[in-house]
Amino acid sequence: MAAFTDRELAMIAVILDEEETHHTKKRKWVHEAWRKRETEGEFATLYKELMHDETKFFEYFRMSEECFNILLSKIGPQLKKQDTHWRKSITPREQLAVCLRYLATGDSLKTISFSYRLGHSTVYKIVMDTCKVITERLLNEMLPKPTTEMWKSIANDFFTLWNFPNCLGALDGKHIIIQAPPNSGSLFFNYKKTFSVVLLALVDAHYNFIAVDVGAYGKNSDGGIFSSSNLGKALQRGTLSVPGNSTLPDTTTDAPHVIVGDEAFPLKSYLMRPYPGHDLDLQKRIFNYRLCRVRRIVENTFGILCQKFRIYNRRLQSKPENVDNIILSTCILHNFIKKFGANTYIYQTINANSNETREEIRLDNLPMQGGNATQDAFRVRELFKEYFNSEIGSVPWQEERITF
Prior knowledge:
The protein is an alpha/beta fold.
């Protein structure tokens, strides 16, 4: 055996000491606090108590326990992970609880991490994966492509509840505030001086989402987003199974089916917007009132969405593509809860014949827009204006609601 010099022996000793230190200071798999998840985490403690109190369960998850279980049955198989020899996987029920708690409260991921005794990155992955599964599994069920019969049913509901015939939906956009993405410049910077993506939505008379477009840059206008969206393109091409013209109720006047929007949208033969400008005559003001009364349904829907999912009360801090999944999943859950949680998630609609709360609607100072509208679009708007001002199409209170 070759002899080693004192210098070589010293180097060997240092190396052996480093190896021994490395083996004695192994990196922990999880933090010590997270090891108590199955006994002290919020899912192991509070969740079990909530199961015996329907009211508290609803307040905590923003849906009933029955609705929660139906949702779990639909997406649970896609959330299930493989157990290993080192640790058990997080159950689909707990993953869904974490995701819904995040959406319902708007709490930070760090707060959810501490309460559920899960790592921050684990919570983030659970939320994103669950939102993705919700969109993949339930999108076609909760926001199906409308058929001709579905459109006719929607139009009938709008006339019955809101006195607007041949209406297929109310359209509007909502800015969802986000953390400014890196290197994005002014793409997401909107007129409200915040960074945002836009949720463009078409809703029915019962506050259900019919179609949504998520993820447009905050700098874009609602009208521009609609024109470039799949919904706008399909309506322009006539490929959405929209029913043909039908007579306005109790008249012989044929009129197309339309959607309604505010002054941000262009006037089309299938898209009605208010008359713009000052000093409008009474008939035009009545038309504007009747249209705005229906259009506010989509604004009310956005309000319900934000109250249900408090995550919209804070700035979303995630990549734009993940933000899109979060927004789309909440729209799907909105429809899902309305369908399967009817006993605890009730919407009060104002019938045309009820004592509607007196509310003034400002109809002046609407911007002059729609210079590219066709003569056919102007003609359609005139048809509805004449109907709303006729003895057959008017409602008793319409002149009282107008503010000059």
